[in-house]
């Protein structure tokens, strides 16, 4: 049985090609299909900052990190609806809870 029109793989192929890579697909009747995604090594090397969320470790690209700090409990302020903001140098910044972003069960905030 064959289904689909390959639209999803076409999107994958275009995005990988934009990054300078390519996709190889090999099929053997009765055995299955092998899909290889090849990307330039330069995409695998980037500066990052590791962060721990519960028992999980994630790497955030440094070009996406503006500042890293250890907030004091006194600088955290609750808002309606259970959200919180962080006071930094007189400004109130929204808190992005990584356990929610990465869907990590059992994490503490």
From TrEMBL:
Sequence ranges assigned to domain CheW-like in this UniProt record: 45-109
Function: Involved in the transmission of sensory signals from the chemoreceptors to the flagellar motors. CheA is autophosphorylated; it can transfer its phosphate group to either CheB or CheY.
Domain of life the protein comes from: Bacteria
Annotated Histidine kinase domain residues: 1-43
Protein name, entry field: histidine kinase
Catalytic activity: ATP + protein L-histidine = ADP + protein N-phospho-L-histidine
EC number(s) given by UniProt: 2.7.13.3
Gene3D superfamilies (alphabetical): Histidine kinase-like ATPase, C-terminal domain (3.30.565.10)
Gene Ontology molecular function terms on file: protein histidine kinase activity
Pfam family, one: CheW
Any GO BP: signal transduction
